[in-house]
Design a protein that fits this description.
heterodimer, A: alpha+beta, 5-stranded antiparallel β-sheet, 5 strands, 43% helix, elongated, B: 233 residues, mainly alpha, 10 helices
């Protein structure tokens, strides 16, 4: 009986199908447990990053791609996420603007740059340079701007600079409309 | 009569007491367990002897924290897939065995990735694409094909643990060297273990970069082979 089942030509197909179904069920189960945790984490991370740029933020609202920051029911500024291609992959940057559209602060959300080199773009020594700059100043000193790149990590630094500048111009444009 | 005597001489002496035989069998199988386990650590070390799955090894060993995270993933997937494949090995049709292995391995890698993303987010980010790449890591597919599909669940568990530990030890050695020489200090999960005064100011960043990885692995490989040659003499 067993040999008859194993020699059946449809058996491999059925077997593979069963394995796939079992795997999918298993994955759905695990995902249902982990995905709310992941979603919460992402919201928390955004909140924490915004608070690091706007320490007195009381709440924020999201409209399209822009975060509107409130300090005690007053509009205190805006924030948006800029993305760029670094040396080792995508870099996501949270940029905060004050009500005059100057940069309030910059914080790296995610990066996979080389540890010890490109990863130094997360240090305040690099990100503090963006504060109070206007869009035209945002470039590496080597490219005629005011920002010192991280030593040995020009590509990562330039990626951040270009991403911030481009998105900043785009967002300010849409805010002024 | 004569034949019967000859045949019984060439057989192993049977023990009279059934309990003794049972103890002997248990001792045999438990020592086989540890033998298989030890094999994976030294004789069949996946990185230095089998030289399998070197691509993620090169990429992930730029820091000890990354290496430990990757090792955890490999051990988890190896263990789960070896056990599962071994327990259904008699029912797997030969024709579709590779797709079956890949589906099972991919499922466990995804489970690990989901759990990691929820409970260890920074490590998940720094492992990046090398986490899903565990699916096609030759070590895991290799053990499934060569061992788990042909041996018992107990032995397959031993094999998974041995190979997994061998992998972990290899990765720790490589990443320790690369991180110490390349950044001058060693950090595990954010806690700094030590800092070398001279190197941390002017680190040999060559070792953090890919060519440095090749160099470190090459030297360690040569060392292992050399020890193996000395041993066999």
């Amino acid at each position: 009986m067993r040999n008859k089942i194993l020699l059946n030509k449809a058996y491999p197909v059925v077997f593979l199908a069963v394995i796939v179904i079992v795997s999918v069920v298993l994955l759905m189960a695990v995902n249902s447990v982990t995905s709310p945790i992941v979603k919460n984490m992402q919201v928390e991370e955004i909140k924490n990053t915004l608070r690091s740029i706007f320490p007195e933020m009381s709440q924020y609202e999201v409209e399209d791609e822009v975060y509107i920051i409130y300090e005690d029911d007053e509009k205190a500024g805006y924030a948006f996420i800029a993305s760029g291609s670094g040396y080792g992959g995508n870099i996501d940057i949270m940029v905060g603007l004050d009500s005059g559209f100057g940069i309030k602060g910059v914080s790296i959300l995610s990066q996979t740059e080389t540890p010890g080199l490109g990863s130094m773009i997360t240090e305040s020594l690099f990100t503090d340079q963006f504060k109070e700059l206007s869009a035209s100043d945002i470039a590496l000193k080597a490219d005629g701007g005011k920002i010192d790149a991280v030593t040995g990590a020009t590509i990562s630094s330039r990626a951040v600079v270009n991403a911030v500048k481009e998105k900043m111009i785009e967002i300010i444009d849409s805010l002024e409309k | 009569m004569k034949d019967h005597k000859d045949r019984s001489n060439s057989k192993q002496p049977q023990s009279c007491h059934p309990q003794e035989q049972h103890v002997k069998d248990n001792k045999k199988s438990s020592s086989r367990f540890w033998k298989e386990l030890a094999k994976g650590i030294v004789i069949s070390n996946p990185v230095f002897i089998l030289t399998l799955g070197l691509c993620p090894v090169l990429a992930i060993t730029n820091s000890i924290t990354n290496a430990l995270g990757m090792s955890a993933g490999v051990i988890f997937v190896l263990l789960c897939s070896n056990i599962m494949i071994s327990s259904i090995r008699k029912a797997i049709p030969l024709m579709v065995r590779i797709p079956v292995f890949i589906v099972i391995i991919a499922t466990f890698v995804t489970i690990f990735s989901l759990l990691f993303e929820a409970y260890f987010p920074p490590l998940h980010k720094s492992l990046g694409i090398y986490l899903p790449l565990i699916v096609v890591n030759c070590i895991i597919l290799g053990r499934a094909e060569v061992f788990a599909s042909k041996n018992s669940v107990v032995l397959s568990t031993a094999d998974a643990l041995g190979i997994g530990f061998g992998f972990t030890i290899a990765l720790i050695m490589i990443s320790f060297l690369r991180e110490t020489l390349g950044t001058g200090s060693v950090e595990i999960f954010g806690r700094q273990l030590f800092k070398l005064p001279g190197l941390s100011v002017h680190p040999l960043t060559f070792f953090i970069s890919p060519p440095g990885a090749f160099l470190v692995i090459g030297i360690l490989l040569a060392l292992f082979r050399w020890i193996g040659v000395i041993r066999s003499e």
